[in-house]
Amino acid sequence: MRTQEPASATIRDRVVDASRSCLAAQGLRRTTVDDIAAAAGVSRATLYRAFPGGRETILGAVVATEREALVVALRAAMSPATSLRDELVAGILAAARWLSDHAILQRLMFEEPVEVLTHLEFESMDATLAVAADTFAPLLSAHLEAPAALRAAEWVTRITVSYLLFPADGVDLTDPDEAATLVDRHVLPGVEALREDVRQ
Amino acid sequence: MNQAYHAGVRRRILEGTNRAICASGVRRTSVEDVARESGCSRATIYRHFPGGRDELLDELVAYEHQRFFLRLSQAVEDAASLAEVVERGLVVAHRALAELDVLQIVLREQPELLEPTLVRASRPTLELVADFLVPFLVAHGIDDPALAEEHAGFLAHMVLSYIASPGRWDLDDPDQVSRLVRCELLAGIEAGAR
Predict the structure, then answer these.
(1) Is the pTM for the entire model greater than 0.90?
(2) Per CB distance under 8 Å, which residues of B are interface residues toward A?
(3) Three-state DSSP class for residue A111
(4) Looking at the complex, does the CB of residue A56 fall below 8 Å from at least one CB of chain B?
(5) Based on the domain organization, do B69 and B145 belong to the same domain?
(6) Backbone CA torsion sign across A176, A179, A185, A190
(7) Cβ–Cβ below 8 Å for B183 and A125
(8) Cβ contacts of B126 on chain A, cutoff 8 Å
(9) pLDDT tens across B11-32, in order?
(10) What number of other Cβ atoms are within 10 A of residue A141's Cβ?
(11) Best residue in B102, B165, B168 to probe A by mutation, most A CBs within 10 Å?
(12) Is there a single domain that holds both residue B31 and residue B108?
């Protein structure tokens, strides 16, 4: 029994964890499948059995795992809120803090900005936004009907990413007061307007 | 050599570089190809771009970036209202970007060429767009200068974001553009102006 490889769910987790360490230590460009296999302590054959698509599939799994972690953090931050306004402030604040405390993301932004930026601009951003909208819309469902929630989720994701990439004076979204000001000034009136727009 | 002549030759070489890339891709474009496309000798190209091929590629990205925003500002300068400037800006920018074949080729083949522009020019571009919008906000009834500046910054973030990635929106459809602008860009500013 002890010589058997661990079950595939465990292998997936181990590979994702190992990929995260490799990304943190050596960045995106220099991380190879061999590095990940070595860090996870599995053979290349085992790794390719769990991730038939290789490097891209593994990186996709890392992104999906991180996205799930973000949703957990957002849900925890947003669930005590009793109004749409408080929910939006809590969600934006939690997302901004989670993303700016994310050591790997910050390292990649600093050292390989073009890899990250080309994923956050142009066509890849459209795909990211679509996934983000589908993922975050349910978090707004307590106070917003589904079609408006989807549109609001996409829009708020865009706003948060945009201000994190290009910080502006007075709009530090990791600061509770400044996040609240943005929500009161722009997000709430916009959500009201798009809600009306969706109804028509 | 006078300055206008110098600038004219540079422009001809960069436009030749653009055509060469559109014809055969980034990797397969050489200084010879650029010489042929621009009708200049290799010596002339190296006199204007001593760094050769690498400098040509970097300068082309910077040149197209500048041209894009020039075209954008010309398209909106006579707009009558804030809504019109933002709507027209989105439509024109989207079209100009879609027609910029060289950008699609660079993104596909060698996105790292965009690094200097994306990293260094993004902030100044954002500020440029925001500064451009401030007078329209003042004319729209936003009297407080600090608030006008904050609103302009918000609009600039949004405009650049939708230009680069429209998401679910079809920016070729005037009805969608006007709904987008009314809700996601101007709603807060309208509420503040009331």
Answers:
(1) no
(2) 107, 111-112, 114-115, 118-119, 122-123, 126, 150, 153-154, 157-158, 160-162, 164-168, 179, 182-185, 187-192
(3) helix
(4) no
(5) yes
(6) negative
(7) no
(8) 166
(9) 999 999 999 999 999 999 999 9
(10) 12
(11) B165
(12) no
**Nearest CA-CA partner of B104 in B17, B20, B19, B22:** B22
Query: Tokens in use for B129?
Result: 């767009």
Tell me what pLDDT residue A5 has.
57
Separation between Cα atoms, residue A66 and residue A70, nearest integer Å: 6
- What's the pLDDT at A8? 66
Average pLDDT of span A52-57: 89
Q: Which domains does chain A have, with CATH numbers?
A: 1-62 (1.10.10.60), 83-199 (no CATH)
What CA–CA distances, in Å, run from B173 to A62, A194, B180? 37, 17, 11
A162/B contact by beta carbon, under 8 A: yes
What is this model's ipTM?
0.86
- Inter-chain touch A117–B119, beta carbons under 8 Å: yes
A27 contacts chain B (CB < 8 A): no
Nearest alpha-carbon partner for A23 in A90, A121, A106, A128: A106
- Report d(CA A180, CA A55) in Å as an integer: 40
CA distances from A193 to A71, A190, B102 (A): 26, 5, 38
Residues of A within 8 A of B118 (CB-CB) are: 113-114, 117-118, 121
- Based on the domain organization, do B73 and B107 belong to the same domain? yes
- Tell me if B158 and A162 make a contact (CB, 8 A cut-off): yes
Q: B33 with B58, same domain?
A: no
For residue B123, CA distances in Å to A8, B42, B54, B71 come to 46, 35, 24, 19
Residue B121 has pLDDT above 80, yes or no: no
Q: Average of pLDDT values for B148-163?
A: 94
Tell me what percent of the residues of chain A surpass a pLDDT of 70: 92
* Per-residue model confidence (pLDDT) at position B171: 94
pLDDT given at position A101: 92
A89: number of Cβ within 10 Å: 25
Domain co-membership, B158 together with B123: yes
Using a CB–CB cutoff of 8 Å, tell me whether A147 touches chain B.
no
Q: Do A184 and A119 form a contact (C-beta atoms < 8 A)?
A: no
A166–B161 CB contact, under 8 Å: no
Are residues B27 and B109 in contact, defined by beta-carbon separation less than 8 angstroms? yes
In the block, tokens 């004319």 appear at B139
3 state SS of A123: helix
